[in-house]
């Protein structure tokens, strides 16, 4: 039980560090400022569901590109534990959104906490998705300015999956 707790704590700590690195908190603040009137509602609405669906869509894109990147990587140290960590990570992300709804209810903050946390999580995972896309060499299909935003994430992914920093089209 202690091992599960420690693993979960490490995953959460890594994820919070990544959110700080990607400036996700600014995305959360931007979401509060730019999201229309539904944010002032004290009840769950279709907009809440849409935000969760956008988050699930971005999580799916990140997972698909991350999986493709791992398959093409010549680094063989990836294990089935990585897949289990992804399940825990995605469960924790969706749980955070549910917790945010509860916090909004308890503190009577309408939907501000939910919007902040959900927008920050969408940005963090979109940031990771773009890093995967760039590391895969698929950048030619995306606007170049997006990759200037995620240069550090792209370099981290290339270093993680391709030891010498080079991209290899297929895993041998």
Q: Gist?
A:
Helices cover 74% and strands 0% of the residues. With 172 residues, it is mainly alpha-helical. The protein has one domain.
Walk me through what this model shows.
- It is a single chain.
- This protein has helices at residues 2-21, 24-34, 46-72, 80-107, 112-136, 144-149, 151-161.
- It is mainly α and 172 residues long.
- The chain has one domain.
- α4 (80-107) packs antiparallel against α5 (112-136).
User: Which structural class do the helices and strands define?
Assistant: mainly alpha
Helix content: over 70%
**Mean pLDDT rating:** 80
Bin the strand percentage.
under 5%
Catalogue the unreliable spans: 167-172
Biggest β-sheet, characterized? Answer: none
Overall geometry comes to globular
C-alpha end-to-end distance: 38 Å
* SSE arrangement, N to C: HHHHHHH
How many individual domains? Answer: 1
List keywords for this structure.
mainly alpha
Please outline the helices and strands.
Layout: H1 2-21, H2 24-34, H3 46-72, H4 80-107, H5 112-136, H6 144-149, H7 151-161
Helix pairs in contact: 1-4, 2-5, 3-5, 4-5, 5-7
